[in-house]
Amino acid sequence: MSRVSRGTLAPIAVIIPTVGRVRVLEVVLRGLLSQGVLPQEVVIVDASADDSVERLCKPYRGIYTGRIVYEKAKRRGAAAQRNQGVAASTQAYILFMDDDIELGPDCVGKLWAFLKDDARKIWGGVNAMIVNQQYSSPGPVSRWMFRLMSGQKLASYAGQCIGPVMTLLPQDDPSLPEYVDVGWLNTTCTLYRREALPNPPFADHFVGYSLMEDVDLSLRVRRRWKLANARTARILHNSQPGAHKDNVCEVRRMELVNRYYVMTRTLGQHSPSDYLKLLLFELFSLLTPLATGRDAWRQLPSVVLGKLQGCVELCRHR
What we know:
Number of strands: 11
Order of helices and strands: EHEHEHEEHEHEEEEHEHHHH
Structural class: alpha/beta
CATH architecture of the largest domain: Alpha-Beta Complex
Largest sheet: 9 strands, mixed
Radius of gyration: 20 Å
Number of domains: 2
CATH topology of the largest domain: Spore Coat Polysaccharide Biosynthesis Protein SpsA, Chain A
CATH class of the largest domain: Alpha Beta
CATH superfamily of the largest domain: Spore Coat Polysaccharide Biosynthesis Protein SpsA, Chain A
Distance between the termini: 58 Å
Number of helices: 10
């Protein structure tokens, strides 16, 4: 196969943590090769038990004009693998990507153009629009909750992080500008300036599935930099099933513990009203899904148990 040369190389290192998902990872790699702007480095940190991902990477080294780096994970977990990938990279811009996305046309180019053209260096990071995961207009109860959590009435809460780390997705509205100021960023497909990132980017607190590590990172970056969503840089997130997601009890425990961590450690929210908002949010997130059908009711015992386990864990560490 001939080497890829039609794209323009940019000083970007793509960091992809993965574990045993060769099929979807290949879609990501093929998508990267089809972009008009190509990253100088693609760093894959693999926690698989076999060598299937390493074998997948080998042919791409022969056709890619940039640098393909494959590393076995020293510690399994999304946050730890991303930290390892950043440490192995050498570029001035870091593009965090999940291993199960499909890149739209010129997605990387639109993210790169935004930060490259930021002459004042006020923007620390920009993420892509996930076309199958978007903000939808809230109903009366949700809007009341959003206003209570944020402490103010807004025309839209899209893209905001309010209250006890309640995160709302950005909105795909054609009337909005191409790049929209937001309150937080995910790590599904997000480009950061390296200089804006903490070292290491992700705190040791986030282990395993690492829920909310992306929120924590972006909120720390936001202390000194602005964050944006690139509405026309589009991706499809083919979220994959996994044992880490099937354990409802563990996921709900981790949600509570990690939300509390970000609320108190990163945002410094310790007042009685902050804890009351956390309690109200947890009740809201517990009760709202019950209106959707049987699955929510079937999972309710596991959800409640997970939240109780999280409460016990927090009490022990206070």
